[in-house]
Amino acid sequence: MPRHRSLGWLTVVAPVGLGVFLLLGWVATTAPGTIPRTQLPTPLAVVRELADGLVIHADLWPYIGTTLSESLLGCVAGFTVALPLAILVYRSRVASAAVLPFLGATQAIPAIALAPLLVLWIGYGTGAIVALCALMVFFPILVSSVVGFRHLDPDILAAARVDGAGPFALLAQIEVPLALHAILAGVRNGFTLSVTGAVVGEMVMGGRGLATLLTVQRDAVNTAGMFATIIILAVLAATIYSLVSVAERRWARYENPSTQGES
To answer: pTM of the entire structure?
Structure first.
């Protein structure tokens, strides 16, 4: 039996154990007479905020929908530009030589630092926030896609060309499917950055999402509400990350059926 199968239980027990340990530490830290509630709320207070906002009054859902839609739109926009550019860099030596040096330089500039410029160019509101999300998503998808294309098996590509596959057929039927694992990895990382971009964008450019709610809660010194909002953001990013990871694993199994019995 493979070693990774015999330790499969560890992937469940370890995070659950760590979560219980952290929760107990949180409860102990917020015992009466320790830290003021305005600095660190109790877990029960945070649960009450979540229950009130998600179930009882259900007034958190419009904020969640706004932040999620901004993140998704930004990710789609970034992907729409990044993937064709990755194909161009992979296919053209001239494009590769021209783009890659600038790509390295632009990655050194935090996309968040561009938020004030986006306000001047686009204005406040959803459009500027989506543009910021797209910028944050663009680079991870581009880099991961280029790496995926450049690691394709040259023998497979040569055999396809011998069989008469043209450039477009080769791209659609061979190159993109074989590089899809790397492309999805870029999308997975980009989605989580897109949530970050939406939060920062709402704080700088205005908006009606979770970051706006977080600002209101900060001004009201509602620490429990801030914790609840941050937890929702973390769950949102983790859910998107997990969904793309599932799609990535399923594609890997489809691509290599012999590995299905080993997962």
So the answer is: 0.81
